[in-house]
Amino acid sequence: MGAGGSPWAFDRAVRRVERLDGLLADYATNVVGLPLRRADDPYGVTWSIGGERMVRLEIVADGPDRLLVHELALLAPVRRALRTRHLTITYTPPA
Predict the structure, then answer these.
(1) Which of 51, 59, 60, 67 reaches 20 to 30 Å from 2, CA-CA?
(2) Are 20 and 55 within 8 A, CB to CB?
């Protein structure tokens, strides 16, 4: 359902970043050589490659949603692919 409180808010947020699936799948197969995994939970979506979190979409009830990029090589391509005022894109080093 998401932090927005409704299924349509979650679906809308995920549709805004649907271009990520192709971009991350290309990076996973051509650069890393491992498959891309996507996991949805009530508060967002996580994309991982080989068990390592690469990108996390956090759906926020008030304000723009957050996209946390954990791989520095993906930051510029993700920003170019997703230009919207409804999304804040930041680099967060892996923990």
Answers:
(1) 51
(2) yes
| Phi and psi torsions of 88, nearest 5° | -105, 120
In a domain, 2, yes or no: no
Domain span at residue 37 reads 7-91
Strand partners, 56: 46, 68
Per the listing, tokens 């923990």 go with 95
Find residue 67's DSSP bridge partners.
Answer: 57, 89
What's the pLDDT score for residue 4?
53
User: Domain for residue 1, yes or no?
Assistant: no
Query: 22-58 as b/e, with b when 16 or more CB fall inside 10 Å?
Result: ebbeebbeeeeeeebbeeeeeebbbbbbeeebbbbbb
Write the pLDDT tens digit of every residue in 42-63: 889 999 999 999 999 999 888 8
